[in-house]
Amino acid sequence: MQAQLMNSLFKKALLISGTLLCLHASWLPVKAWLSQQLISYSWQQSLLASSSAEYIQVKPWPWADTFPIAQLSFQRLNKNIVVLNGGDPTTLAFSAGAVAPFNQVNRNNPLVVAGHRDSHFSFLEDVVMSDVISLTDRHGRSQLYQVEAVDIIDASVGDLPLAADDSSLVLITCYPFNNATSGSNERYVITARML
Prior knowledge:
This protein has one domain: Sortase, Chain: A, CATH 2.40.260.10. The protein is built from two helices and eight strands.
């Protein structure tokens, strides 16, 4: 009788432990999915709010340090990504981010967008010369860009030279794409010119 009770308790403990481990393992994928839904929703709300005279920053969640400023569409690759404001690690954990001081969507300055090679910008290795990228701003206006350069640069050498009055779109991620270790100084840089 005692052995049966111990066996029953052991099975229940295993069931509870297994359930807790499954819940713990599913937390990150659920969090990633939910954050993408909230970012997409805040982008749609930003587009709706832009019809008002006053600019409203619609955060994806109340404690977010960022907000959507644009959407990039890569038609040939069937990829869309909402661009958040800022290039800090917290922002880049959730999506690609526009890096200050080149984080304003306008026709007079470059827009520099960074993202992680193993998540949001993993598809950049499939972008080729002459690909067309559509950028939609918070007012719902679209602008087309065409890829004119794909470079691999050493980030430890210095800054990326950008002209302040250049209207290009610059996409940056770490390189190489299949490198499982962090700490590479190489950056994959795609430059696209406004059409």
